[in-house]
Amino acid sequence: MLNIALPKGRLGDKVYNLLANIGYDCSEIYDDNRKLIFTNEKSGVCYLLVKPSDVAIYIAHGAADIGIVGKDILEEDKLDLYELLDLKLGKCNMCVAAPENYIEDLDRPLRVATKFTNIAKNYYLSLNREIEIIKLNGSIEIAPLLGLSDVIVDIVETGTTLKENHLKVFETIMPISARLIANKSSYKFKNSEILDLVTKLKKELTEND
Amino acid sequence: MAQIPDFLAKEDELGINLPLLFESRGYKKYRMSKFEEYSFYSDNRKFLTDDGVIAFNNADGRLMALKPDITLSIVKNAKLSEKLTRLYYNESVFRISHAAKDFREIKQCGIEVLGDIDSYITSEVILLAAKSLEMIDKNYSISVSHNDIVLSLIDDCDISLADRKKLAGCIGGKNTHDFRRICDECGIGDETAEKITSLFTIDMPINDAISKIETLVDTEKTINALNELKTLCKTLTACSIADKINIDLSVTQHIDYYNGIVFRGYVEKAPAAVLSGGRYDLLARKIRDNIGAIGFAVYLDNLNLYYRKQRDYDTDILIINKDSGNADKLIACVNGFCDIGKSVCVEREITESHRCHERYVFENGELTEEK
After folding, report:
1. Using the beta-carbon criterion (under 8 Å), do B173 and A185 form an inter-chain contact?
2. Minimal CA–CA distance to B202: which of B249, B135, B168, B158?
3. How many whole angstroms separate alpha carbon B235 and alpha carbon B242?
4. Which of B158, B211, B297, B342 lies deepest, with the highest CB count within 10 Å?
């Protein structure tokens, strides 16, 4: 039995459909209830529906064998896992954005508002730029508008939210997409099951391309 | 191995059996102080994990550290014999976990061999690693690699230290997609990138892996590394543990310190490696003159959680003492049960929380079994 951690929400739905297409279906998942664990003995899978930012934690601790998570979460948490596939779903970029007319003052530390504090720290460390992190949990875009920060580091998908708040992208830090990850111990002891799923998934992704 | 009572937790059980195993192969116990001068660790910072060192000032004002690592300390302080020094330890290390934002005590038991390391010693160490894992769980697996096969190919590429670190991260995570992207970004050619990818995705039984690696290596360093791996695999196959070994070239250790066979051990119920080791001549030679070194550590913390022993009783016998005197007679009864291997607890009255197989009442100097 493979325990698969799926992120709740739109990405989780897309990934579930992908997995169901290659034989890992569990129709009970569509039932209108509040259950978070769904098992299909026949397909040999048990799906756990968890908060997207928790998927990697469940896997690192062995509560799930494999799972799907955004590259942003992986980069932020840096857990000891295998990253087996880029599913090329949920594509976006981790960016530095600021008000359209922003000019950087190099004479003082840069104030950066973000949910992704580790990504921001590492990025600016690589540039040798002194920063002051302002950790926020949502509505990051308003921080520079209210003078709380100079820039933000956040995920940008279409850029619409930025545009509507008169912000624009100044730097792209890295591309983000959904990744298939595995627990290192599960990979050793459930190797054939995991490799079988990876092979089928790769084939499905190539055909869909 | 020693007859271990059922009630001992896994960590305590291993704390007895692992030293017995190491002693049986001629390893001597190395006991160390919990403190060391901080400067020693700051000089060898890269050898340590990303977790921080707990530092403090001693009474003389010198900056000290609570030991964050055992290998470093042994290499620096151990008294070496002429040819070969075999040591084992059963100690705690102390680190600051950035993830948990807290201090951590990590219990480790392991071995270090310092001196002239040959193929026999390498095999002995891996076989001891296998036996150590078997004591935790019969269902274990060792991932063996050679540090020079994949990392030397990356070292040959003319790239920055930062890019090398990123690529090493991808290798450890079997992450081929980001590896290829970073190779593209830093100008590593397709052919080299393809070859390295094919190598670090090798994670298979010994014979299949050796055949595949043979088709991919062509530099002097990688061919020598493969030959070393082949010699080791021949011994492991002869010792009938080949089915527990995978050649997994995604296993690497820091190239500034490790220079040969490296390995990690997994057991079925633990979500991460519980054993890690390898050949670290480069580290040893930074501290001592011209010696080789190999060793491993078993991480004992959390094993009690993954290998929880459920007991359905607290003692074999519970005696309810309703007597106000006759303590000598009661002690004689308790000793009598203990002499025949039973565990006994004496209470004044029955407690709900105490579980036992047999219950007795001691009254007026007499012991009566309660049905």
Report:
1. no
2. B249
3. 9
4. B297
Tens of pLDDT, residues B65-88: 888 888 888 988 888 887 899 999
Between CA B170 and CA B164 the distance in angstroms is 10
DSSP character at residue B280: -
Measured distance CA(B240)–CA(B130) in Å, rounded: 11
Q: What is the mean pLDDT of residues B313-326?
A: 90
Instruction: Report the alpha-carbon distance of residue A6 to residue A24 in Å, rounded.
Output: 13
Strands B140-146 and B245-248: parallel
B214-257: pLDDT as tens digits: 999 999 999 999 999 999 999 999 999 999 999 999 998 887 78
For residue B1, give the nearest of B22, B13, B17 by alpha carbon. Answer: B17
Chain B positions touching chain A (beta carbons under 8 Å): 139, 141, 143, 162, 170, 173-175, 177-178, 203, 246, 250, 266-268, 270-273
Instruction: Say yes or no for a CB contact (<8 Å) between B271 and A126.
Output: no
Q: Do B272 and A85 touch (CB under 8 A)?
A: no
Q: B307 to each of B135, B270, B303, how far by Cα in Å?
A: 12, 8, 6
Checking DSSP bridges between strand B102-115 and strand B292-299, what pairing results, if any?
Answer: antiparallel
Q: Tell me how far apart the alpha carbons of residues B6 and A193 are, in angstroms, rounded to a whole number.
A: 35
Q: How far is CA A119 from the centre of its chain?
A: 13
Q: DSSP letters of A121-142?
A: HHHHHHTT--EEEEE-SS-TTH
* CA atoms of B320 and A173, how far apart (whole Å): 71
How far does CA A64 lie from the centroid of its chain? 17
| SS3 track for B150-185 | HHHHHHCCCCCHHHHHHHHHHHHCCCHHHHHHHHHH
pTM attached to this predicted model: 0.88
Helices (H), A22-174: 55-60, 71-77, 117-126, 142-145, 160-164
Amino acid at A31: D
Can you tell me the distance from the alpha carbon of B92 to that of A161, in angstroms, rounded to the nearest whole number? Answer: 51
Beta strands, E only, B172-239: 203-205
Contact A174, A93 (CB under 8 A): yes
Please tell me the distance from the alpha carbon of residue A94 to that of residue B146, in angstroms, as a whole number: 35
Any B CB within 8 A of A193 CB: no
CA dihedral A21, A74, A61, B93 (to 10 degrees): 160
Predicted ipTM > 0.85: yes
Mean pLDDT in consecutive groups of 10 residues from the start of chain A, 209 residues: 92 89 83 81 90 95 96 94 95 96 93 96 94 95 95 95 94 96 97 95 88
Residue of B178, B197, B208 for testing the chain A interface, max A β-carbons within 10 Å: B178
Which stretches of chain A are assigned E, i.e. beta strand? 2-7, 37-40, 45-50, 66-70, 82-86, 92-99, 110-114, 131-135, 151-156, 167-176, 178-182
> Which of A60, A62, A126 comes nearest B162 by C-beta?
A126
